[in-house]
Amino acid sequence: MKAPAKKSKRPLADLSGCECPQDPFAALPPELRPQNPPPRRGLREVTCPGCGLVYWTNRAADLCADCERRGQKPLP
């Protein structure tokens, strides 16, 4: 059985003199840099008016699936 091959440790290339931009927005102040999209894009946090369950949904109705199945109506 052969021993696993050792990885050679080559020094990383020095990119300090490189003209290509590593981060094109690095010169901008933090408030002008593009923001990452929110992790739950398209979802909103809702409290079910029928049972009080707090959940995330992308539907227009605020009732949870259990309350809809039971036939409860949303409060006006």
Summarize this entry quickly.
By secondary structure, the protein is low in regular secondary structure.
Question: Please, could you describe this protein's structure?
Answer:
The chain has one helix at 65-70; strands spanning 44-47, 54-57. The protein is mostly loops and 76 residues long. The protein has a domain at 44-76. A two-stranded antiparallel ribbon has the order 1-2. The mean pLDDT is 79.
Derived structural class:
little secondary structure
Nearest-angstrom radius of gyration? Answer: 26 Å
Summarize the helix and strand pattern as letters: EEH
Strand content: 5-15%
Could you give a short account of the major beta sheet?
2 strands, antiparallel
Helical coverage, percent range: under 10%
Could you give the order of strands across the largest sheet?
A: 1-2
Question: Distance between the terminal alpha carbons, to the nearest Å?
Answer: 75 Å
> Could you give the count of β-strands?
2
Stretches with pLDDT under 50, minimum 5 residues? none
Mean pLDDT: 79
Number of helices: 1
